[in-house]
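Researcher: Go.
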Amino acid sequence: MTLRGAFFDHQGQLSGEVELDGRVCDCCQTTAAMTEQGLIVAYRDRSETEIRDIAIVRQANGEWLSPQALFKDNWTINGCPVNGPAIHAEGANVAIAWYSMPGEQAEVKVAFSTDSGAHFSAPIRIDEGDPLGRVDVLLLSATEALVSWMEKTETDAHIKLLKVKANGS
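Model: Structure:
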């Protein structure tokens, strides 16, 4: 499975077709946001050895840059987890949330950027110990986001919502 991009004008004319990444996870949703420098796309990448970490590809000065791993969670799974990332941007500020399970330990994390996704803060783990994923994120300010996800309990699952700051509080 590849990740591709293109633009449509108001008359429906296609332009700017491009392959953004030649190997991505088959079923995990892709998410995109507009920054002041251009689009940023987040998705679950897929290596030849089935490592499925979150990657981003972004535009700067109208050009697509090479894909890069957001962080090296090193989640190895031989099937699609159907659990992609979520991203939100306002100007140059970006928040991204994702689910991962490195070493069989499920985690929900969030990271922040103040430069249109060129660099991100260290990931902040926000789950309560047994998440199912299904993340979403809403940037509230340059340093604060609202993140939602599903978390298992002993008897059922709950939708969790947390306001988190870039400093981890």
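Model: The mean pLDDT is 96.
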